[in-house]
Amino acid sequence: EVQLVESGGGLVQPGGSLKLSCVATGFTFSSATLTWVRRAPGKGPEWIASISGDGIYVYGDSMKGRFTISRDNAKNTVYLQMNSLKPDDTAVYYCAVSKSIAAVDDYDYWGQGTQVAVPA
């Protein structure tokens, strides 16, 4: 059974930082493309970043420079370091398994999400 368990969310003041983690089980993590997606209140899913099994990464334009995706294959964990947070970053953040680095918004599996809140 595939499981993706996110953690690290919370309440953070504007300009602050958070590091999200996602521990994965039930599939071959080292070869999978892992992705972070968020959903803000009243909006659809927004792709943030993806990282392939061999370390190729891509970012959405609005997050480039503030967010950093990384992975630790020994721990079956993918991370999202978020800096200079803004109220617009308030959302539920999900990790997902994408079909490939060429199809990052085509998802095989999703986690349950972790809430990030940045007050105005």
Low-confidence segments: none
Q: Sheet with the most strands?
A: 7 strands, mixed
Spatial gap, N to C terminus: 40 Å
Please report the total strand number as a whole number.
Answer: 11
Helical content class = under 10%
Structural class, from secondary structure content?
Answer: mainly beta
Overall mean pLDDT: 95
Alpha-carbon Rg, integer: 13 Å
Number of helices: 0
Shape: globular
What amount of the residues lies in strands?
over 45%
Describe this entry's structure for a reader.
This protein has 120 residues and is mainly β. 0% of the residues lie in helices and 55% in strands. It is built from no helices and 11 strands. It has strands at residues 3-7, 10-11, 18-25, 33-39, 45-51, 57-59, 67-72, 77-82, 91-100, 103-110, 114-117. It is globular and about 40 Å long. It starts with a strand and ends with a strand. The model has no long low-confidence stretch (mean pLDDT 95).
Features of the shown structure:
120 residues; mainly beta; globular
